[in-house]
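Reviewers asked in the last cycle whether our approach scales beyond single polypeptides. To address this, we selected a multi-component target totalling 372 residues and predicted its structure end to end. The input consisted of the following lines:
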Amino acid sequence: MNDLDHEDWLRFEQLVLPHVDNAFNLARWLLRSRADAEDVAQEALLRVCRFFRGFQGGDARAWLLQIVGNTCYSWLEKNPPRGLMVEFDEELHPQPVATPESIAIADEGRERLSRALETLPPRFREVLVLRELEGCSDKEIAAITSIPVGTVMSSLSRAQRQLYSALANSPLKEAVRDV
Amino acid sequence: MTCDFADSLLQCYFDGELSALSAAEFERHLQHCVDCAVELVDLDLLSGRLQLAQLYEAAPASLRKKIRADLRSVAPTTAIAQPLLWHWLAAAATLLLVAIAGWRASPLLRTDDYQAELAEEIVDAHVHSLQPGHLTGISSNDEQAVKGWFKGKLTCALPVRDFADKGFALQGGRLDVVEERSVAVLVYARPGH
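The resulting structure, written as structure tokens, was:
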């Protein structure tokens, strides 16, 4: 590894450090934990820094997010999600048995949306976060996730669909958990 | 989407425009119709009340702090690889930081936080300098040579003195960056260190 000289440091500070929020946000939604996200974002930033010499310009945010994503996935492999958080399975929930009251009157808050998002598989969470929270284009998402553009589009619509279903399901699940 | 209700009634129901009777009827239907249930949540989302964007979570201050601290210690992987000479030299050198005021922040800004951050930056720069090859930008005990090296790199002329006779032998100088400005650092060595 090469040391960064002062110019590299300055470049790094200008190009990469402004995207710490983006890095953290993506990690937080991929890992579903703020504490873990902090660790992983930190690790990803370090990695980017380590290889910064090789960075010839281009979209530093996309590059950072790509490394954050990869770091998250290897973290998830080493630390498989455990316990309460059951991932949403289309097969298991073919019929959202939501009551109209629960849908129409249900709290529309952040909390409910956040819970719904967290039930999606990581890949779906990733594309949704990149699109809706980061405002990335299909092409940017493809670059960040290393998924072909066509697949990004279908992943997005499937992810959206699942999110809606998860939302429709969430009041019911809550009820079941309370019993 | 195959449900007839979805087109006709759903939007009205969502907007609260149905009569109590029709609404009740539609709600009965909704209990069995997946399409309508999903569509209703769709509408909810589209209406802007449930936007994902509101889930954005900014990085906590603690993360920024950790990253700043980390960044300066990235290079030690090389320091570990070839430690002896430079470690010894680095440890041996007693460094005097002469921060030439390229920065002149108003005294009002100098709160405790400001002082702490400034101290952190200077310490970071110092730690960075302990990595191999970073101790000096110019290695010389010649006052004029060191002074000349700083010329053009700073906004003011820097007096360079060698205090070898008083126990501080000039080793050279380098530029650090503090508060995003270049500051001059003179490096001296203590005998026996």
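The domain at 100-178 of chain A is CATH 1.10.10.10 (Arc Repressor Mutant, subunit A). We regard this as preliminary and will revisit it once experimental data from Aim 1 are available.
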